[in-house]
Amino acid sequence: MYRRLALILCTAVLAGLASLASATTTVHLTDRALVEGAELILLGDAMEVTTTWVDRDLVTLVTVEVEEVIKGEVGESVEVALPGGVDLTGPVPLAVTWPGAPTLVPGERAVLFLESYGPVAGAFAITGWSQGKFIVQQGTDGGTEVYRSAAIGDEPGEGLVEFMAKVRSLLTVGEEAP
User: Fold this and answer.
1) CATH code, 72
2) What's the CA gap between 150 and 160, in Å, rounded?
């Protein structure tokens, strides 16, 4: 009888612990879904990075200087909110990271697909987690190339001019780019 009671108790505890565990799952977005889901699409440079608490969540705010707007309207700069960050102001330094979350560092140039981020007035979040960030760098041939943020080195880059034309064609035609 005690063995059965112990088994039931252990099962209940494990079930309770399992309900506390959570994971982040993202759905792969097609190019068309990414363009349609973004309120703002721009080419810009990450400039200033700050970290702040929004309720009980640590959020990194990155000021991005806008070079070119492809969709939407915005001024010379935009605030991009990223999950996690580092807080050195408390009695114990604290860092919060989210696996697969997008990042932006000062000096980084990127094409960003953005949507409003409600908890911070005027700020935007990257659409589709990291899927809405495309890093812009010099290619091996000296030209400017665009890479999916997680794919640098894994796949060849695409020319910036061609990439921007593909995004614009999705805005005007509404068809999936090849």
Assistant:
1) 2.40.50.120
2) 17
Alpha helices in the chain (DSSP H): 2-20, 31-37, 160-172
pTM: 0.80
pLDDT of residue 153: 55
**DSSP-assigned beta bridge partners for residue 152:** 155
Task: Please compute the mean of the pLDDT values over residues 16-23 and round it to a whole number.
Answer: 40
Gyration radius of the chain's alpha carbons: 21
The answer to whether the beta carbons of residues 135 and 109 sit under 8 Å apart is yes
**38: Cβ–Cβ under 8 A, 6 or more apart, which residues?**
71, 72, 113, 114, 115, 127, 132
Question: Concatenated DSSP letters for 46-97?
Answer: EEEEEEEEETTEEEEEEEEEEEEEEES---SEEEEEEE-EEE-SSSS-EEE-
Please give the distance of CA 41 from its chain centroid, rounded to a whole number: 13
CB 104 within 8 A of CB 49: yes
- Nearest CA to 82 out of 120, 56, 109 is that of 120
Domain span including residue 63: 28-172
